[in-house]
Design goal:
The longest helix has 20 residues. This protein has 5 helices and 6 strands. Helix 1 packs across helix 5 and helix 2 packs parallel to helix 3. A 4-stranded parallel sheet has the order 2-1-3-4, with helices on both faces. A two-stranded antiparallel ribbon has the order 5-6. 48% of the residues lie in helices and 22% in strands. By secondary structure, the chain is α/β, with parallel strands linked by helices.
């Protein structure tokens, strides 16, 4: 059996982080985790492009534009959508997730969903750098591995 795996090596990779300003208390922690992961795996901070958008709903359009340039190996989107009294969060999360997956398939560039989807503030805190880790870190690690798998293929 032949097994193909991607190395967690960001050496020479260029990556874009698209970050929602909404819920910045959480998204800034996600950015810190994302940058830390990239650098710890051999990437240079100078090879990261940080783009800020108003909210999670704007992430796909900017991610699509970045992926289409051919100048980045991957795009990682970071945001925090916290459930409120209406189903608005579910609508945003589902729509954005489908759009990001479509962009990746259409462009061939990995587009990772690093959006914290939480039912409450406690869950969001846990996923932005405390008990449950940091979703920014996780998304960048997945991007690095995916890029390297695609290179082997």
């Amino acid at each position: 059996m032949k097994e193909i795996v991607g190395k967690l090596d960001a050496t020479g990779l260029k990556m874009a982080l698209v970050v929602s300003r909404f819920n910045s208390f959480f998204t800034e922690q996600l950015v810190k985790g994302a940058v830390d992961c990239f650098v710890r795996h051999g990437g240079k901070e100078a090879d990261l492009t940080l783009v800020r958008v108003p909210g999670a709903n704007e992430l796909p359009q900017v991610a699509q534009r970045l992926a289409a340039t051919g100048k980045v190996d991957a795009v990682v989107t970071l945001g925090a959508v916290i459930q409120g009294a209406t189903p608005h969060a579910d609508l945003i999360n589902g729509t954005v997730a489908r759009a990001l997956a479509k962009i990746a398939l259409d462009t061939g560039v990995p587009v990772l969903n690093g959006i914290v989807c939480a039912l409450n503030l406690e869950q969001a805190i846990e996923r932005a750098g405390t008990k449950q880790g940091n979703k920014g870190w996780d998304a960048v690690a997945a991007a690095i591995e995916t890029v390297n798998v695609l290179k082997v293929l």
